[in-house]
């Protein structure tokens, strides 16, 4: 199996701080995620800017689309996004819209299973509809209430769907190897990198741990 990709969640609201963090961790990550608060605050021009500065990185725009999937996602793919996210709770029609927009741009759609009641049924239906990536995700508010994504990751991985699996939700150095072993293809790390005293060192450590599995 190919080594999992490492995705840094760029979750600052500040435009320049976002670019600076991207530059700092670039040697150690594969995917830049423009986090939901960040894309809402800064808009599509940030996608164009990161695309121009980092032509060799994958760019994920964490739209967490809830309605009007094709219409909302299309300008972000056109601006250079490789992956956009759509909420599984939005329903199949909206997910299909983002999948359609992704396919029209030779890009990928990721279903975010955050707060989905029946994650297995949603993952199965979205995979059947052509989703490229399934996002197992414990959000920041749920993390604060003590939740983790590990049980959900096992449930989704054991389905053996024809999709890649992304995992997010408080992943850090002490848990990253477990999520690799559990079958994650994309490891999302936010606070454990951007909140570290040295984000570059933290990102390097995550890379080394992933490579060592
Ligand atoms: O999408 C998000 C919140 O909705 C975060 O970007 C994601 O959870 C990764 O950040 P962290 O590693 O800090 O949990």
UniProtKB/TrEMBL annotation:
EC number: 4.1.2.43
Record keywords, A-Z: Carbohydrate metabolism, Lyase
Catalytic activity: D-ribulose 5-phosphate + formaldehyde = D-arabino-hex-3-ulose 6-phosphate
Stretches assigned to the Orotidine 5'-phosphate decarboxylase domain: 5-206
Pfam families in the record: OMPdecase
Pathway, per record: One-carbon metabolism; formaldehyde assimilation via RuMP pathway; D-fructose 6-phosphate from D-ribulose 5-phosphate and formaldehyde: step 1/2
Any GO BP annotation: formaldehyde assimilation via ribulose monophosphate cycle
Single Gene Ontology MF annotation: hexulose-6-phosphate synthase activity
Enzyme class, UniProt record, top EC level: lyase
Annotated family: Belongs to the HPS/KGPDC family. HPS subfamily.
Protein name as annotated: 3-hexulose-6-phosphate synthase
Native source organism of the sequence: Methylomicrobium album BG8
């Amino acid at each position: 199996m190919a080594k999992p990709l490492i995705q840094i969640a760029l979750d600052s609201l500040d435009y320049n701080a976002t670019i600076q963090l991207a530059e700092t961790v670039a040697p150690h990550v594969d995917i830049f995620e423009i986090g939901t608060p960040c894309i809402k605050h800064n808009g599509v021009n940030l996608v164009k800017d990161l695309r121009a500065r980092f032509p060799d990185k994958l760019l994920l725009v964490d739209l967490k689309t809830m309605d009007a999937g094709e219409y909302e996602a299309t300008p972000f793919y056109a601006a250079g996004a490789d992956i956009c996210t759509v909420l599984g709770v939005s329903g199949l029609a909206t997910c299909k819209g983002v999948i359609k927009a992704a396919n029209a741009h030779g890009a990928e759609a990721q279903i975010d299973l955050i707060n989905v009641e029946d994650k297995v049924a949603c993952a199965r239906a979205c995979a059947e509809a052509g989703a490229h990536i399934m996002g197992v995700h414990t959000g920041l508010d749920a993390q604060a209430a003590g939740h983790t994504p590990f049980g959900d990751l096992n449930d989704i991985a054991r389905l053996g769907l024809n999709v890649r699996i992304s995992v997010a939700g408080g992943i850090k150095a002490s848990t990253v190897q477990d999520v690799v072993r559990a079958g994650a293809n994309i490891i999302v790390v936010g606070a454990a990198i951007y909140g570290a005293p040295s984000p570059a060192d933290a990102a390097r450590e995550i890379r080394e741990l992933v490579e060592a599995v």
